[in-house]
Automatic annotation (TrEMBL):
Gene3D superfamilies: 3.30.60.20, P-loop containing nucleotide triphosphate hydrolases
Subunit relationships: Homotetramer.
Record's GO cellular component terms: cytosol
SUPFAM superfamilies, sorted: Glucocorticoid receptor-like (DNA-binding domain), P-loop containing nucleoside triphosphate hydrolases
Protein name: Thymidine kinase
Binding-site residues for substrate, renumbered to this chain: 170-173, 178
Keyword list, A-Z: ATP-binding, Cytoplasm, DNA synthesis, Kinase, Metal-binding, Nucleotide-binding, Transferase, Zinc
Length: 193
């Protein structure tokens, strides 16, 4: 039975690296996969999934108007799909998550989604909230805070190194903008600085 998986973590945990490795494992055995990523996230290039360690691959993109079920159904019509991968899954809509659940349930194709659980203010992203509610399996990918504890939170900084407490939930960036912390150090930074 195919399942919908949500692999979540804070920034710099290696989510994209794990996605790329998992897709490669299928492909190495002659199995076809498809990878989706958010259309507006072009840090590695438009329609690319890229990791900080230098791995990358082409990907199909999704935005709020994309019907992932129909897109995957069309791709499956071109030949068997062994697995669907979604990078930056926090940017999915609730409707997208239901579409991915239907891919697993009705097409019997496993779906592996990778993304952040919470934003820089400690709030769930809509896609992550829906995945936490609907995924068959939840897998936490761990990274560490500067103190050595598990990092579960992320803080956003401006170009001058100042902590940002308010703003749009979505502001794509990497190490130049975000730092992962354990809950204690995030709380100290966010509420006491």
């Amino acid at each position: 039975m195919a399942k919908l998986y949500f692999n979540y973590a804070s920034m710099n945990a290696g989510k994209s690296t794990m996605l790329l490795q998992a897709s490669y494992n299928y492909q190495e055995r002659g199995m076809r996969t498809v990878i989706f990523t958010a259309a507006f996230d072009d840090r590695g290039g438009a329609g690319k999934v890229a990791s900080r360690i230098g791995l990358s691959t082409d990907a199909l993109t999704f935005d709020a108007r994309t019907d992932l079920y129909r897109a995957i159904e069309e791709l499956a019509g071109e030949g068997a799909l062994a697995c669907v991968f979604v990078d930056e899954a926090q940017f999915l809509t609730e409707a997208h998550v239901w579409q991915l659940a239907r891919v697993a349930d009705r097409m019997s194709i496993p779906v592996m989604a990778y993304g952040l659980r919470t934003d820089f203010q400690g709030r769930l992203f809509p896609g992550s909230m829906a995945l936490l509610a609907l995924a068959d399996e939840l897998r936490e990918i761990r990274t560490i805070c500067h103190c050595g504890r598990k990092a579960t939170m992320v803080a956003r900084y401006d170009g001058a190194g100042n902590l940002i407490r308010e703003g749009a939930q979505i502001d794509v960036g990497g190490n130049e903008k975000y730092v992962s912390y354990c809950r204690r150090h995030w709380d100290e930074k966010f509420n006491c600085s």
